[in-house]
Design goal:
alpha+beta, 10-stranded mixed beta sheet, 19 strands
Length: 408
């Protein structure tokens, strides 16, 4: 085996790590990773950095915000496994970035398949085209177009994949999917909580054949843009708050929320090593009016539940974020979930979040099977219902229903 410091060794090491972690499972996707040089799609980036388990930014806007990147290898692998592309398939990708993803898919659909990858920035399209040409990829084409509008002139497609985040289902895409086709779409549910869905038609609605936790850079410059506003919080440190257009909040007041007195409440709900946060996040995103928002950063007195920051519930100019306290009992080490509220309504909001966390835990928490998802657009939305209306998420074009399992 080549040493892990040259391209071949780094490529092999990355592939084996993704196989061992379970992100890579199917032979075609494994082979594509094993034979595609990631560093060749990142000119100017350090060789070892190109193969690390991390996203690599490739473009920023005038404020310094990242607007395009090559996703972390595990995310790329997860989505390609969700896609399930086969030899001979026609694939449409929204979000060309460097062309790396298109190169992987071009190998998966060979022989006889074709990939079209779209982006809204000419410089990204040009860069992806150069990278694909240098890699000798002849069945993948980078095109300047709005991914949310698709590329109808080459439709229908057997598979459509978005490697950018959407706030809703881009309905124009659905008509470009072939019968029996599959759409992989990272979609925000409410607030910052999003998942990568693999949708297939199910009569007049859509079912999910796969659903994974994932967050992507949002769509830009098109018919289904997902606009969010980053609110820097006043005071020491670099804490910022993600807010979105559907959230009814006072962003000016939220900027000063952490400067107000706090209320801390603990839930009695204990997480152990390896406990998954994703389903609690999803539950809170559904039952809280403004969902959950990411609150990354550090500052004195800010005690989030993770090193990167926390997730926060919002109400007007108030917020309530998740925290933990560590302990040990007869079952071993645990982290008890708590909530810290700030702002005029911070105390009441913290109590509400605590009560919802307790309700989630009482109905099974992480001990029940993962929920299922159904989606509909157009007139079919009215026929898509949930037992508990709190788990019906209505958007401009679509309705998403979350079907929760319950203990007992």
């Amino acid at each position: 085996m080549p040493p892990a410091t040259d391209p071949a060794g780094l490529r092999e090491s990355l592939t084996e790590c993704l196989v061992d972690s379970g992100h890579l499972r199917s032979r075609a996707v494994i082979d594509a990773f094993r034979t595609t040089d990631r560093h060749r799609f990142l000119p100017g980036v350090d060789l070892e950095a190109a193969y690390k388990e991390d996203a690599v930014p490739i473009k920023h806007d005038e404020s310094g915000e990242m607007i395009s990147c090559i996703s972390a290898p595990s995310i790329v692998a997860t989505q390609l496994e969700q896609l399930g592309a086969q030899p001979g398939h026609k694939v449409l990708e929204a979000g060309a970035a460097t062309g790396y993803n298109a190169a992987l898919m071009s190998k998966i659909v060979s022989p006889g398949g074709q990939v079209w990858t779209l982006d809204v920035d000419q410089d990204l399209v040009a860069g992806a085209s150069r990278n694909l040409a240098r890699a000798g990829i002849g069945n993948a084409t980078a095109t300047l177009a709005d991914g949310a509008a698709g590329l109808p002139e080459h439709a229908p497609y057997d598979r459509i994949i978005f490697t950018v985040g959407a706030g809703d289902v881009p309905v124009k895409i659905l008509d470009q999917l072939a019968p029996g086709g599959r759409l992989v779409l990272p979609m925000r549910i409410r607030g910052s909580i999003s998942r990568s869905f693999a949708f297939e038609r199910d009569s007049n609605a859509w079912k999910t054949v796969s659903c994974e936790m994932a967050t992507f850079i949002p769509l830009r410059k098109g018919v289904c843009d997902d606009i969010y506003t980053l609110v820097p919080l006043a005071g020491e440190g670099d804490v910022r708050l993600e807010t979105f257009s559907e959230q009814d909040v006072d962003r000016d007041a939220l900027a000063f929320a952490l400067d107000t007195p706090s209320t801390k409440v603990y839930t009695g709900v204990k997480f152990r090593a390896g406990s998954a946060w994703e389903w609690l996040y999803l539950y809170l995103a559904c039952v809280l009016p403004n969902g959950l928002s990411r609150l990354p950063g550090r500052r004195p007195g800010f005690t989030p539940h993770f090193g990167w920051g926390s997730m926060a519930a919002l109400e007007g100019g108030s917020l309530a974020y998740l925290t933990v306290r560590e302990g040990e009992d007869g079952e071993g080490r645990f982290w008890e979930i708590g909530v810290i509220g700030h702002g005029p309504a911070g105390s009441g909001l913290a109590e509400r979040v605590v009560n919802e966390i307790r309700a989630w835990d009482a109905t099974g928490g992480n001990d029940v099977p993962a929920p299922g998802f159904r989606m509909a657009v157009g007139d079919a939305r009215d026929r898509l219902t949930a037992t508990d209306p709190r788990f019906t998420v209505d958007k401009h074009y679509s309705r998403l229903v979350v079907d929760w399992a319950r203990k007992g």
